[in-house]
Each structure stands twice: as C-alpha cells, then as structure tokens.
Amino acid sequence: MSIIFHRARLINPFENLDQTGSIKVSQNGIIEKVTEGPELPASSPDDRVIDLQGNLLVPGLFDMHCHFRDPGQEYKENLESGSKAAAAGGFTGVALMPNTRPVIDSPLGVAYIRHHAASLAVDLEVIGAMTVESRGENLAPYGKYHSYGVKAVSDDGTAIQSSQIMRLAFEYASNFDLLVIQHCEDKSMTRGGVMNEGLFSTKLGLKGIPDVSEAITLARDILLMHYLEKHKLHDPIRRPRYHVAHISTKAALDLVRKAKSDGLQITCEITPHHFTLCDEDLFHAESKGNYIMKPPLSSQENLDAMLEGLADGSIDVIATDHAPHASHEKECPPDQAAFGIIGLETSLGLTISELVDKNVISIYRAIELLSVNPRTILGLKPILFQEGEQANFTIIDPQEEWTLTTGSLHSKSTNSPFLGRTLRGKAKGIYHKGAFIQPENL
User: Fold this and answer.
1) Burial of 248 (0-12, 13-18, 19+ CB in 10 A)
2) Which of 308, 320, 387, 411 has its CA 20 to 30 A from that of 354?
C-alpha cells in the first residue's frame, strides 16, 4: 500500500520548486511518483490518499541547535520526549549540543546518542564538544569525531575564552572539515549577569549583560580566521568554517556581513525568541523566569536589526536553542533562574506569525531558513522530491491559528514565554523513516 499526498503546495528550495502537485510514497518510504497539478496520480484501491487541500509539503525541517539533556538531566528532557517535541513541531531532524552530563566530548558519548536514536521518529545529529569537558583548555578528539560521522564541534554555552585554544580549534577542525559553532560571549564582561544591560535591568535592579560581549568574542574569532587565511595555516583545501550560534545584536550581525563580504566561510543563526521579544518584554512579564536566556533578550534596536538581517539574507538559519528546564528552575527570582527556554513546538508558528505574515520574509524563504540552510551548513544530504529518493517531508497548514498551552506540549518541560500566545501556522505531520506521524498521535 502506498500513500499519496495529494493537492499539496510543494515547496523545495533545494530544487527551486514551488508548485501544486502530489507525491506518491511506497510502503517502505521511497518516492514513487511526483506529479504537477491538481489531478490525482494513478493509484490502486489499496493506496491511502491524504488530501492536503493546498497545505504545504516541504523538506523535513531541521533544527541545528537543540538540548535534549540526555545523558544526565533526563528529568528536564530525554531523547524520546525531545524527539516527540521535535516531531510535533514539524522537525524530522535535530542537532544536539554536547553540554550534557557528562559532556559529549568523546566517541563514547556520540555512540550513546546514535544507539538510542535509531528507533526514534526523527534524526539526531551529534555536535561534539570543542574542548574536553567544554572547559576551554584542551581540544577534544576531532579526528575520532569525524570517524563517527560528527559534522560540527561546539562548547555551546561556554565560549572559548583563550585565543590560542580558539586558533588551534580552527586549525584542527579544518583538517576534518568540521563546522565550528561558537556561542559568542566574553565571559569577563557577563559573569553574574541576568539580562540585557540597559534601562530595564537598572529598573529591575538586576545585573546586566553588556550586548557588546557578543561582538567582542565574534570579532576575535573573525580576526583569527583572517590570520589563518592570510598565512595559510590550515588545510589549504578545507578552510575553517564558522557558525555563530543564536546571534542577537546589530554589532555582531554587522561583523558577520563584513566577514562574508571578505570571503570568509561564516554563517549565523537566530532563534525565534530573538526575533520576537526584547528586554522590555521581560520587564513587563509577571513571571520573569521564562524570559531569562543567553544571549539575553536584547534591546528593541537590536531586535529591529535582527529583522533587517532576516529580510536582507544576512541571517542564514532559524534555530530553536531548545533548552528545557524543570519548573522549579524557572519559577524563582529571575537572578536564580536557569538560562534558556523550549522552542521546538513554537518555532514554526512564530516564524509564520512574526516573519511571514508580517512580510519580513516569504514562506519560501522560511523553508530555506528552517530546513535547507541548516542541512547544507552541516553538510547533510539534501532532501529531493524525486523518484527513488527517501521521503522526508513536513506538512504545514500556514493558516491554522492555535494557542500554546502546557497541555499541548510534548516536551517534558514547559518553560516558554509564549504560553497563552495565539500563533498562526502549524505542522500537521511529518513523513520520515517510512512513517506518517501526526502530532495528535505522538
């Protein structure tokens, strides 16, 4: 028995495709037929026809910045619950950051994730720690990572502070064509900080985080890339590739623009909370714990700059930085709250509500940011709507309005500033690994 996804708007930027059509998928998950137009493809009585009535069928969404807390903090999230949250949000794959307990800084940790991921609905890519235990002192075994299929390294929430270690990381990573992902933060300026430094941190009496700390670390890393490029102190074939995690300030984005124009291999991502909220939202929030994250919600000026960066193409990826925490870690004074929020189940709705519906970007561009670009940057295989290819789809109703509630979440955690918010645009299901999965069946 085959499944026919009928009368869909097929959008696939991998193939410059945007048309009405149908896709027929075999029982073992292989695309049998792709047709253009509203007519139903040839079918047998045993085939299952799913009439999408103009809803979108796109390459499976991919989130390149997630935390599933497994191993070590499974009370917040585990691989199974995180995968359910991802599938409910329309993601067929995610990349997991290594800041687990213990840190994923060896092939053993990679093997643990891969073993448990085999039976899950979504693909789990593993990002290896850049340094041993993410201490910023000794490089992790990049060569062994590479042999285990790891595509990227990062110390995530702990930016490497030593310029020499960072230089070595660039050189070592380039030998294996590993993407270097940096959480840009000069910790000498941010230690003890809770929220963006400015008027609202002063009014609340909370220690601020200067927004320039992001650009300072990024500027150093760009200078190192220029130095290595000038002196060819890396594999001449594989130049360093650098990705800025959760960019949030105009100064940092301007640095990325300049580095791109200079020919450096640099990309950046933004989270939905950084293109939707600012520090004033935290100030007015009754429960402030769910507005505490790193980088912090910044000024309205920086928020406006992020929207400009999305509109002009300077920002390459939308990533969630899905960071689950238990209620007791958020329902506390803001200077005691854990950093981070969940985001897998709201990313698509916020992208459509805040960007597409407000004409910041098109829906076609949204799919590039949510699916095509993260896969390309990580060096993953492109998803093609062609006969003989493995089916990997997300189905989206861009018009459906829905309200986020704790009861609607599939994550173990509920730490979101968007609870009670009505969004437009929702994933209606994913087709991956030979199975059609809808959120209500997770």
Assistant:
1) buried
2) 411
